[in-house]
Design a protein that fits this description.
alpha+beta, 5-stranded mixed sheet, 2 helices, 7 strands, 24% helix
């Protein structure tokens, strides 16, 4: 059996794991934009990944991109999701801010 982890003790009750933020893997310096529809009931989003920014910077960048695109979106797991297929507009906006951008996927 692999390493077991204690999650409950009759003396102390439930034992919580230490709250450690998951470290994001370092990218190669290229921001990738892809269109994703799986698991979204047919409505697609543009997924921006590979940004080497902290959470606050990601949220401000996402807010600016959503405002320029005129649509909604979210920041999840270190990636920015923008509603709709706006890959070309997002590519030009990110290149204006100095990022190296590639369109990924089909």
């Amino acid at each position: 059996m692999s390493d077991s982890v204690l999650v409950y003790s009759t003396q102390g009750g439930r034992i919580k794991a230490e709250d450690k933020p998951a470290a994001r893997p370092k990218g190669d310096g290229i921001v990738r934009i892809q269109r994703q529809t799986s698991g979204r009931k047919g409505s697609g989003v543009s997924l921006i990944s590979g940004l080497d920014l902290n959470d606050d910077e990601l949220k401000t960048l996402a807010a600016g991109l959503k405002k320029r695109c005129g649509c909604g979106g979210a920041v999840k797991n270190g990636c920015i999701e923008i509603q709709g297929d706006k890959r070309d507009l997002l590519k030009s906006l990110l290149e204006q801010q100095g990022f190296r951008v590639k369109l990924a996927g089909g």
